[in-house]
Amino acid sequence: MKLTVAGFTFLLLGIFTTGSAIAQTQSSTFSGKVHQVWEDGFQLDSETRSITVDSYDLCGDSTARHIKVGEQVTVTGEFEGGEFDAFSITRINGASVCS
After folding, report:
1. Of 59, 23, 63, whose CA–CA distance to 43 is shortest?
2. Where are the beta strands (DSSP E) in 11-82?
3. Alpha-carbon torsion (74, 79, 83, 88), positive or negative
4. How many angstroms separate the CA atoms of 44 and 71, rounded?
């Protein structure tokens, strides 16, 4: 099979795109103060940025019963569609939230 310049270009583009997708799904951790809370998420102000956290998988629609504005928490998860999907939420004393 003969690989043309166009075919080679598409092959490299596919490898690059797949690599970028893999890099974006890596887990990250952020700590900060809760700025706002709603039924299935909250806004976290870390030292470097403000993050919209989706906590539905952990708290369902009861996030506001478990997390309060002004509380210091650490979240671990990944970015997806502009939101940070939380895998875990931990209070400053080490206690897990919503589990």
Report:
1. 63
2. 28-38, 41-46, 50-54, 72-80
3. negative
4. 10
Residue 60, phi then psi, degrees to nearest 5? 65, -140
Strands 72-80 and 28-38: antiparallel
Report the chain's mean pLDDT, rounded to a whole number: 83
Structure tokens at 93: 């004393």
Residue 10 phi, psi dihedral angles, 5° rounding: -65, -35
Average pLDDT over residues 71-90: 96
Q: pLDDT tens, 19-65?
A: 444 445 578 999 999 999 999 999 999 999 999 999 999 999 999 99
